[in-house]
């Protein structure tokens, strides 16, 4: 009888995980949520058998096995919240929490320090807390508080859609915390542990937040908007190209007509030259807008990127492509100097995505030197150990020390409202980490800012291994 609730709820947990995974596909968010659901499913599934166990040895084994999953449960919840808020800097703390859970798990399976036997209650057997069990309690409290803090901090700079999602997640954290009442049963309180009900409600809310307000949710909207914008842009570009082909003849005919006295020259001085330059300006604006659209789509689809399509690409080629395609204004191109990047340097990944990263860094650097009233940008290459290094250095106003820790956060921007969405550097970090590298920033206010990209070196030997694995 008492095993019916965990049996029913465990199936719900597994259903939550599968529902999100199937609905949203394999992403960092959906995968971490599935891990949370599977861990919860295993915990409650074990309790189904524990509550019906009649042999003492079997009950002890089941008590330890079920608690093995409980030890990891708070950390998997923390893992999910870190992915939802895209706080990659939480990784060291997350790994430390997993490490502590692993240590407690080893002690659980080899000693009586975490679970020292079990109590026999009216509903069945239940694990008895050992001397080190309070350490797990402290970990659970800290992880829950940290998760709540991440959500509160993320809401400050989030869009309206994301704020709704984070609000639901905060409610889920509050409900999940109520499940801590079960720990009293580990210390001898004789009541049926109701925590599973709170956890079920919590995971249900999280499932809704992922499916309804997930990062993948805006993709269809973004793709539709991109299509609707690209169509007129393509038309404008074609018309600009037609103007570029016909304008010289029109201009020549006009000049001949003026010379022959067939018409009066009513153009103001320099107006003809400005009209001639408009074609190139229109084309650059169209290309720049198209690039922004492509970067936005790449950002929302990055989690679904097929890494099997990654291939070796030349770093110098990507830098050259970025500089060739960037819509510089006026004399801006002359402010950018490139040196030290060898033609033989290669990395494994997507050349298109790396070009977008370089675009972002170039855009930010140009914005910085404009803000400073002038300056220059150096793109410098180097090889350090097993990495090819690209440094973007600008002599702009720099980044304040209090802002530096947040520059890679999604939706955080130091630019004036309406001029920056705060997605650029977060996108850069995600791309470089997808390639197995990392991005760093150092800045001296009023002197310079340097962004450093570290990409794993791709050698001829690695090329041979890649071709062999692909052929196999």
What distance lies between the first and last C-alpha atoms, to the nearest angstrom? 54 Å
Helix fraction, binned, reads 55-70%
Order of strands, main sheet, comes to 4-6-7-9-8
- Strand % is 5-15%
For the secondary structure, the number of strands is: 9
The third-level CATH topology of the largest domain is Rhopdopsin 7-helix transmembrane proteins
Low-confidence stretches: 416-422, 463-472
Instruction: Please give the radius of gyration in angstroms.
Output: 29 Å
- What is the level 1 CATH name of the largest domain? Mainly Alpha
Number of helices: 14
Mean pLDDT: 81
Summarize the structure.
The protein is an alpha+beta fold and 472 residues long. Helices cover 61% and strands 12% of the residues. The protein folds into 3 domains: 4-215, Rhopdopsin 7-helix transmembrane proteins; 218-304; 305-472, Histidine kinase-like ATPase, C-terminal domain (Heat Shock Protein 90, 2-Layer Sandwich), CATH 3.30.565.
Topology:
Layout: H1 4-24, H2 28-50, H3 56-84, H4 91-110, E1 115-121, E2 124-129, H5 133-156, H6 160-178, H7 183-186, H8 195-213, H9 217-259, H10 271-301, E3 311-314, H11 315-325, E4 336-339, E5 346-349, H12 351-371, E6 377-384, E7 387-394, H13 424-434, E8 438-444, E9 448-456, H14 460-471
Parallel strand pairs: 4-6
Antiparallel strand pairs: 1-2, 3-5, 6-7, 7-9, 8-9
Keywords: ATP-binding, Hydrolase, Kinase, Membrane, Nucleotide-binding, Phosphoprotein, Transferase, Transmembrane, Transmembrane helix, Two-component regulatory system
EC number: 2.7.13.3
Pfam families: HATPase_c, HisKA_7TM
């Amino acid at each position: 009888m008492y095993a019916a609730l965990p049996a029913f709820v465990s199936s719900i947990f597994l259903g939550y995980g599968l529902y999100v995974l199937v609905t949203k596909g394999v992403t960092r968010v959906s995968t971490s949520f599935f891990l949370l659901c599977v861990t919860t499913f295993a915990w409650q599934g074990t309790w189904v058998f524990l509550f019906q166990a009649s042999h003492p040895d079997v009950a002890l084994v089941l008590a330890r096995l079920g608690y093995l999953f409980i030890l990891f449960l708070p950390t998997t919840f923390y893992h999910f919240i870190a992915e939802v808020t895209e706080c990659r800097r939480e990784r060291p703390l997350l790994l430390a929490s997993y490490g502590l859970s692993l240590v407690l798990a080893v002690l659980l399976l080899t000693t009586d320090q975490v679970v020292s036997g079990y109590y026999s209650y009216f509903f069945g057997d239940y694990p008895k807390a050992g001397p080190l069990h309070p350490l797990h309690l402290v970990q659970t409290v800290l992880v829950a508080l940290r998760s709540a803090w991440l959500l509160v901090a993320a809401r400050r700079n989030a869009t309206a859609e994301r704020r709704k999602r984070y609000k639901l997640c905060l409610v889920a954290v509050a409900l999940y915390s109520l499940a801590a009442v079960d720990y009293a049963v580990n210390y001898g309180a004789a009541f049926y542990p109701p925590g599973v009900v709170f956890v079920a409600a919590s995971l249900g809310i999280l499932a809704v937040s992922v499916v309804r307000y997930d990062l993948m949710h805006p993709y269809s909207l973004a793709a539709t908007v991109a299509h609707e914008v690209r169509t007129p842009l393509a038309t404008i570009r074609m018309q600009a190209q037609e103007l570029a082909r016909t304008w010289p003849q029109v201009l020549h005919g006009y000049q001949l007509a003026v010379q022959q006295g067939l018409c009066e020259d009513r153009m103001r001085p320099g107006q003809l030259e400005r009209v001639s330059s408009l074609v190139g300006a229109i084309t650059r604006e169209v290309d720049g807008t198209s690039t922004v659209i492509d970067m936005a789509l790449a950002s929302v689809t990055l989690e679904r990127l097929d890494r099997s399509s990654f291939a070796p690409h030349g770093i110098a080629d990507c830098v050259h492509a970025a500089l060739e395609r960037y819509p510089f204004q006026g004399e801006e191109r002359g402010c950018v100097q490139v040196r030290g990047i060898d033609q033989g340097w290669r990395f494994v990944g997507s050349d298109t995505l790396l070009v977008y990263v370089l675009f972002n860094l170039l855009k930010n650097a140009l914005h910085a030197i404009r803000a400073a009233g002038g300056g220059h940008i150096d793109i410098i290459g180097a090889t350090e150990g097993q990495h090819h290094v690209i440094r973007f250095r600008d002599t702009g106003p720099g980044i304040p020390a209090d802002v530096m820790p947040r520059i890679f956060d999604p939706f955080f921007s130091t630019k004036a409202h309406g001029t920056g969405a705060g997605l650029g550097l977060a996108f850069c970090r995600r791309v470089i980490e997808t390639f197995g590298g990392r991005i760093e920033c150092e800045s001296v206010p009023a002197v310079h800012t340097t962004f450093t990209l570290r990409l794993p070196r791709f050698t001829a030997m690695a090329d041979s291994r890649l071709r062999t694995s692909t052929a196999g």
